[in-house]
Protein 1
Amino acid sequence: MDNNSTNVSKDLYAIIMDRKANPVDGSYTNYLFDKGIEKIGKKVGEEAIEAIIAASKGDKQGTIEELADLYYHTMVMMVQMGITLEEVEEELKKR
């Protein structure tokens, strides 16, 4: 992962953390936090399925878009669960 990718991940994570700490009216992220982990989990699953479908169709751009959605929703789940980027990175290093 290059520095730009790392920065994008850290920036997105920071934005999601800020939304949790400082809710904004009309924010989709705050909507997810308000609905709780079950809703967030359903969105993660939904986006994973949509990414699989797009990939199965050979739709590269659609797969990229769905993976971006999956990445975002996964980070919302991480923030909701109190999981840091570093914890996930450490787990990946073990593998």
Protein 2
Amino acid sequence: MDNRSRRRPSTFLANLLIGLGVAIVLLATAGYGYNYWQEQQARADPWLARLEAAYARAAGSGNGTPTPSATAQPAPAAAGNTATPAPTGSPTPGATNTATPVPSYPEPVGMSIPSVGIESRVVSAGIKDGEYQVPKFYVGHYTSTANPGQNGNGVYVGHIESLSSGNVFANLPKVKVGAQIRVYTDQRMWTYLVTQVLVVPYNDLSVMNQTTSQHITLITCTGDWDVLSHQYTDRLVVIAEPAS
């Protein structure tokens, strides 16, 4: 038998493996490039400039939204809902019953932490297939938690380092107690001051519990990467309370 015919199968297999390798490299490069482009688009998002322009127009027209007083805040409720206090006492016969408007608390649309250079649009997050979802490239706000200014615990999450999902909270470990966190809605900006920086096990969900007091909780990954569970061993938790 011709020796050249014996070499053909091995040559074909080698070429096939080389072709598969090149295809994998090209796909990986394309995926990396697309994810990098998405991350740059998220960083260049002009959400803050648009909000500040809207705030300026509202202030100039005299239609700025006043800051709700602490006594006017509704009782804790599910995120996205505005609790309305039940009326007390009986109305006076013949008198006009004038209802006092209850302040509303819109969902957050942006967040910035000037001391560590974090600035991001905020998007809604929830639970899917029994797992808490973390949005790609942006900060996420769990819709079942309190909105800015509302009594309760507003919980925000973001990736610390992910090739496919970004690193919006990469600088969160640098945050110090006393740092300012700004949370924006379509109506106004809310300012919080960091009071605690904690590290908890990845399965400790107590930091997400709702409370009667008003504060926000920021969560991202930290610790070591666990190959078996495909996640980090711990969570970095930053808690902040209203500045006033």
Protein 3
Amino acid sequence: MIADKISRDFNISFDKTKFDCDFGRGNIENVEVLLAKPMAYMNRSGPPIQKLAHFFRIQSKEMVVIHDDIDLVFGRLKIKKKGGHGGHNGIRSLMDAFGGGDFVRLRIGVGRSELGDNVTDHVLGRFSVQNAEALTRIISGARDAVVTILCKGTQAGMNLFNGKDLAITA
């Protein structure tokens, strides 16, 4: 949803497909970007992204990976410069494909199920009415975080967005 928001806001259409990724090229405030969405299963997303990055000569340290995180409360953002997979199979796949975790991550909190649903059902399920109302703020805030990382640097993004809870109205 966040990649789609960035795509719309900066007129970068996902009009190309290569290596099981939909992608588009464009600019975000004069920064040239390749915006990509792997079409493989999440836990197999690393190889398609690695192949696309290799094709375009993009190093992992130049990437910003956006992903959900059940260990963060719903709506909270956290930017990390690098690190482990934290149990996230998509990040594990990326780390395996690139030989390490040297990429920036924008973690979007989805929290844990209050109903005791398993992780897959919770992450892929529908948002509650209360959470759905906050979704627009979360998506816009995450988009702003990506723009900040790209245009002002990871540290600036961390200073502005880490710990920010976008599910709460100000």
